[in-house]
Amino acid sequence: MEFACSFVPKLAGAPAVQIRFTQTSRAGWRLNQHTSQTRSFRISTAFFREAPGGAPTKVRGQRKVFDSVDEAVADIKSGSTILSAGFGLCGTAETIIGALAKRGPESLHSLTAVSNNAGTAIGGGLSPLITGGQVSKAICSFLGNNKALEKKYLNGEIAIELTPQGTLAEKLRCGGAGIPAFFTPTGVNTFIQSGQIPQRLKGGEVIEPGVARETRIFDGRIYNMETAIHGDVAILRAHKVDEAGNCQFRYTTQSFGPLMAKAAKISIVEAEHIVPVGELNSHEIDLPGVFIDRIVQATAEKIIEVKTLRSNEDPEEQGKNNPALARRNRIAKRAAKELKPGFYANLGVGMPTLAPSYLPPDANVWIQSENGILGMGPYPTEEELDADIINAGKETVTLVPGASVFDSSESFGMIRGGHIDVSMLGALQVGANGDLANYMIPGKVFKGMGGAMDLVSNPDETKIVVLTDHVDKSGKPKIVQHCTLPLTGARVVSTIITDLAVFDVDRKKGGLTLIELAPGVELDEVKQKTGATFEVAENLGRME
């Protein structure tokens, strides 16, 4: 088996880096030399401080409420696997993380941290443990603009195992439910399946390669096998916790909280309010006390990662003096036509979030956010602002009447299960056959896939609509015959909406049909700026 990987961020400043793995036997990997435009890397073994790991002792019947957070984390061992709840900085256990950081790398080190995102660019979350050198490996779905984490990865100070967000949630759910493995369509025909994202690098050398997935075919379709995640210790934050450990969460703080608690041997929760047993009614309990071993008082303030408030300005008026915004508004306005009355729709970060602004008041479209909302509303006013209600882009939002909230496993089950009618995403490249690439530009962009691979995992049931500028910042076409960037999904896109045109995509046969032109745009311009061949509809329309 042989496959090539044009890899990733800024490796030794190389303009084009390619790693080729050839599997010749069970003995391991052999690296082949290529042309002068490529670089090859040796694989060697990493050596680390001895860290036995393992969970603290679980003692049934002991009082769960601890007088201090330092006492609650004192027996966590170096080498442990820590499951850290939260989405961005919403629902993160800041008080507990602070106590772990206080122990320092001499007392607590070589941790494996499992979290949707391992810290942020502005600090908070796992950032203190990572910058302090206490974490040796992170299993996460998203790096974002966390340059400190990226630098540690490139320098070999930390290993990163990128995992699609929905897969991460399901691995945790299975870990807590006693299920060793499962099969998923997420990540098929991507670097996740082939294991082409190295987990650990150092000086241009692959210390630890990625792990290729075992696959099976069910009903004529390929699925990846993923294994469960188990943790030694889970750390989470809840709104109210009674002295028996029963937890109540507020809104999107529960995205990973219950999943982390169930998948760990010992779970520690920091509570905004510790209450007597009986104060929480049975129907108010989101996580039963059987999953909680230790309770501490939350003292750290909540952090709002992206404070976004509602604007009363007309977006069309704003766009008159801002060409880039005018392009985005044009795309969003056309995208709104894909949202039919009664539809359930998932909107990715960026441009897709603008589409609801162009829906009529009686549209009856339910917006789903992958971090656990069905019925997402507009951005809040200053008076409506709530740190516990955020969208997939970590922006503050509101909920519409009838909205529901749930954990990430439930959310991605809706998506993979085909219960969502439309999913809208951005793109770096879109192929004429419906291939989508939107999470990595080797040598430039390496943010992680987040939930994108899950969002496109069932394109037969959930229509995938891409919203993107027709060309990139350098003028290169983003619609191409064949994607050259790492794929998010293969043959998944049904409709492409750009600032110049709208295309229908034939995912089965592979081909594009131009169905609409933007106002003031002629066919020759679209041909010039499209890197793929396409047919033109008989009744070519105009974007409205």
TrEMBL record:
InterPro entries the record matches: 3-oxoacid_CoA-transf_B, 3-oxoacid_CoA-transferase, CoA_trans_fam_I, NagB/RpiA_transferase-like
Superkingdom assignment: Eukaryota
Keywords: Mitochondrion, Transferase
Residues the record marks as active site: E370
SMART domains: CoA_trans
Key word Glycosyltransferase present: no
GO biological process: ketone body catabolic process
An annotated Gene Ontology molecular function: succinyl-CoA:3-oxo-acid CoA-transferase activity
EC number: 2.8.3.5
Catalytic activity entry: a 3-oxo acid + succinyl-CoA = a 3-oxoacyl-CoA + succinate
Function: Key enzyme for ketone body catabolism. Transfers the CoA moiety from succinate to acetoacetate. Formation of the enzyme-CoA intermediate proceeds via an unstable anhydride species formed between the carboxylate groups of the enzyme and substrate.
NCBIfam families assigned: pcaJ_scoB_fam
Name of the protein: Succinyl-CoA:3-ketoacid-coenzyme A transferase
Organism name: Friedmanniomyces endolithicus
